[in-house]
Amino acid sequence: MRVVVAAVGRLKSGPEQELVARYAKRTQKSGKPVGITSLDLIEIPESRAGTADQRKDEEAETLLSKLDAKTHIFAFDERGKNGSSPEFARQVESVLDSGTGDIAFIIGGPDGLASSIREQAKQVVSFGKLTMPHQLVRVLVLEQIYRATTILTNHPYHRV
After folding, report:
1. CA-to-CA distance for 140 and 23, rounded, in angstroms?
2. Alpha-carbon distances of 89 from 2, 134, 145, rounded to whole Å
3. How many CB atoms lie within 10 A of CB 17?
4. In the chain, where are the structural domains located?
5. Which distant-in-sequence residues (6+ apart) come within 8 Å of 66 by Cβ?
6. I need a surface site. Which of 8, 48, 100, 155 has the fewest CB within 10 A?
7. Which of 71, 138, 62 minimizes the C-alpha distance to 103?
8. Phi and psi angles of residue 42, each rounded to the nearest 5 degrees, phi first
9. Low-confidence spans in the chain with pLDDT less than 50
10. Residue 50 vs residues 47, 108, 133: alpha-carbon distances, Å
11. Is the pTM of this model over 0.90?
12. Domain made up of 2-152: CATH architecture
């Protein structure tokens, strides 16, 4: 199954980009036993629309246009459910086992996500109520995807 991490904004060279690349590479290896055939990173530019709502709507339209209609969406948003890594791994496992289509992990830009993405998402996930730069959220999302694959394969990376 194809996994997509779709995000608003481009990562510049630096530590965040290096961490994203590291976790993406690790996930491509550790994900094979659980059925992940590829990991694609999609970046779209931030909208230049006049208001935050207009920017979010424009970004949502662009993000969703990059995904197949059958894609299972995990949206990262502060209004989402704040669960544990093992719970997240089980959610990912459930989608992988269903074989219904790709999985996309969507990360908004500085203004957040449009309600249209939250409504289409099967899961809305939060890293807590803290506001974080979307570049760091991208690192955290990739790390959690990698962690999920290690949990599902009983690899010692995740310690209880």
Report:
1. 9
2. 16, 22, 8
3. 15
4. 2-152
5. 4, 6, 42, 44
6. 48
7. 71
8. -120, 125
9. none
10. 9, 17, 21
11. yes
12. 3-Layer(aba) Sandwich (3.40)
Tokens 């208001």 found at: 51
Q: What is the pLDDT of residue 41?
A: 97
Can you give the three-state secondary structure of the chain, one letter per residue?
Answer: CEEEEEEECCCCCCHHHHHHHHHHHHHHHHCHHHCCCEEEEEEECCCCCCCHHHHHHHHHHHHHHCCCCCCEEEEEEEEEECCCHHHHHHHHHHHHHHCCCCEEEEECECCECCHHHHHHCCEEECCCCCCCCHHHHHHHHHHHHHHHHHHHCCCCCCCC
Residue 28 corresponds to which tokens in the numbers above? 């491509």
pLDDT digits (tens, 9 = 90+) for 9-29: 999 999 999 999 999 999 999
